[in-house]
Every structure is written in C-alpha cells, then in structure tokens.
Amino acid sequence: MAALKVIQWATGTVGMHAMKAVSDLPHLELVGALAYDPAKQGIDAGEHCGAAHSGIAITTDRDAIIAMQADCVLYMAKGEGKRDQVLDDVCALLESGKNVVSTALTELIYPKACGEEVASRLEEACRKGGVSFHATGIEPGWASEVLPMAMSGVLRRIDHLLVQEIMDYSTYPSAEMMTAMGFGAPPEPVPPTAIPVTMAGAFAAPLMMVADALGATIEEVIYECEVVTAPSARDAGGVRIEAGTTAGKRYRFSAVIGGRKAMTIEHVTRMGDDIAPDWPQGRGWLVTVEGTPSMKLACEIAFKGEDANDQACLATAMHAVHAIAPVCAAQPGVRTFLDLPQIVGRGAFSLP
Fold it and tell me: Which of 46, 54, 204, 230 is deepest in the core (most CB within 10 A)?
C-alpha cells in the first residue's frame, strides 16, 4: 500500500515533532512544509526537524501549499484567538481535496461547540473536496475527552467527573501563549460565573463532546479561576514575571447536568515549583470519577526527568500524526473522536 502523502503546515515546536515523525514512519511520506518565518524559506524540511535529508524545501507560500497535491495536511499554526484565519486556511485546504488534521484551534475538536455557522462551513468544505477534517490535541484533545470516554464504559453512574491538567509551564516555548494566559500581568480576581456552554471557549468542545457521547444535556457552565502571584521576579515561559504579578492560575469549567456540577475540566498551571505549593502537584493529567464504581486514573508525563512541556508538545504532535491514516480512510465530513476508530500509535514500536 502506497504511503500517504503529508504536508506539514507550521514548523513550531509541535510542528517540528510532527514533521520528524512523518519523515520516520514508513506509511507516511512528507511532500511539503510551510513555515511562517521567512528565515526558514528553502531549508530542507527533513534536516530542519532532525530527520534525514528529504529534498523537500520549506516554503512560506500559502497558495503553493494549497495548490500542492497530498492526501493530508497537518495544520499546526498557532490558532487560538484567530478563528477566522484558521477557518479560511482549513477550508481552503479541504476544498482543494486534502484531508486536514489540526491542532491549531482547540474548539474545533468538536465544531458543534463553535455554533452552527462554523460547523456547517467545515462540512461544506469537506463536501466540496470529498475529504475529512479532524481536530485533536492533548488537553483538550485527549485527556478531557478520550480518557473519560474510555473509562465510562465500566461505569454505572457518574456523580462528578473531574479532569485535571497539572503542569509547570515555566519551560513552555511560547511567550505569546503565556502572555495571552495572563502570566506576568497584574492579578485580576474572577468571581464564579455562569455562562452558556457555547461561551466556554476551548473548553466547550470537550464538555459538549463527552456529554453528547454519554447522552447528557448541559444546562450551563460555571467558570471559576484562582490566581496566585510570584514571590520573586523570574523569567519563565518566555515572559518576564515581576514579583506580585500573576505566576499561577487554577481555572475550571464545570458543566451543570441535572441541576448539579457533574463534569469539570481544571487546569492547574504554575510558573515554577515554588508557586502555589498547596495546589495539586505533579505533571500530567488526572481523571477522577466520583460515582459507582469510583475510579481515579493518573497519567504522569516525562516521569524519567525529561522536559514535561516538550514531551507534552511531542504527545500533541503524535496524537495528530497517528490520526492521519484513519482520517484519510474516513467518509468525507467533519470527523471527531465520536466518529473515528480508536487512534492508535501505528509504528510506535519501531520508530527511532
């Protein structure tokens, strides 16, 4: 069977991990790569990501990539807060007859969460191109969807489902993201706020997906956020954090089902081990089910001492890379985790 031809769109940290995996896996073939940095124009894609020489030159030409023939595009641009740009790019790729697997915009993991207009636009682009679209990630994109849905098959009743990401982001390679999250800014207390599920941003997608999968209806979402400040100045996550500015955030989105908080996604994010020592500790993801049976699943990343943020970026990339084959084999349309077979790590025993 011929290898699937893949284009890598964006070559940041996640994109570099993905491009190397595509280059190394025998059932995939890298045929193109797009970067936003003009300095990368013309560089060999394989050598740039640490793989063998590929003969594929990185380009910054969006139109050339859209016109290129391929089975699938790994779309990994920094898309949070840039919905219109992401949709323009993704729909152009889909309409050109290429499947798309994306990590760029978390809410697209379940496009229904974005509203009918967005979901319909993606479906129409898939129809025109005769291809499929799938969005994925790590959290959201795996921990808050795939793990609890897998666990649900052995549960009789769920009183409360809690998914937590617990990470020290001080080595995260994106100053843009850290700034957008408010690190280094003056602390702003946020009282608990009730909002419609469609207003829950990136976290509406996993909440709605799990609720739909388990046959539940979300009545509203409660947003809560705790903030702690830095006891001393530091450079972390690519930003300067002065003493007294935000250095830790613990925020959660809780879905109200049947009049109670039944499902919560919580991120415990700190900029250093000394920040909020009373908050949950560790690095990875924890799924806790209060119900019958009660159950707790802990997933620790980088347990051998690796950089947890880089390993999480690698995991994000691989979740997308391993989705390429099932997405290309799927019937045309938007394909979420509810539509695809289980994403498995094909080739994981043989990759260098």
Answer: 204
